[in-house]
């Protein structure tokens, strides 16, 4: 069985086993933080509900920890910090919940597992000078792809944008299949 077939099998099994009313089992602290973050942001007009289509996903997510808080040094090795792990778990569950509640879940998962992918991330920071644009790319990309059960090496195109929204810092992310390129005559 090839690696992509293994991923497909695991993703399909996970999709079939997941309830559509709640995310998969999660660590209690992460569940509480997830509930807090969604309840704080539910009333904000800038946070949009997830949109899942047959060839893509658009979702609003919280800002990840800064790069200085994503990693810790343990016994001389750089490892993902507890804040980084909590963020990845939170985002993974949020993405998976959006997927399982969609009527396009099987079609989208098949597309994401078989086509090259494009990711577009709009960062809305509280200040334009406090955060680097690329500091949240890796953890966000990993979190979303792990939540969907796909390998992030399928992403062949990345678009990053930086905006300021003091009232509602967030990420607006879009993951879709790459449109076929036109061939030159």
What can you see in these coordinates?
With 185 residues, the chain is of the alpha+beta class. It has one domain (3-177): 2-Layer Sandwich (60s Ribosomal Protein L30, Chain: A). 41% of the residues lie in helices and 23% in strands. The strands form two sheets. Strands 1-2-7-5-6 form a five-stranded mixed β-sheet, covered by helices on one side. Strands 3-4 form a two-stranded antiparallel ribbon. A hairpin with a 2-residue loop joins strand 3 and strand 4 (77-80). Helix 4 packs across helix 6 (137-148). The termini are far apart. Residues 1-7 and 18-44 have low confidence and may be disordered.
How are the secondary structure elements laid out?
Elements: H1 3-17, H2 28-42, E1 51-52, E2 56-61, H3 67-70, E3 71-74, E4 77-80, H4 82-100, H5 105-114, E5 117-125, H6 137-148, E6 155-164, E7 170-177
Helix pairs in contact: 1-5, 2-4, 4-6
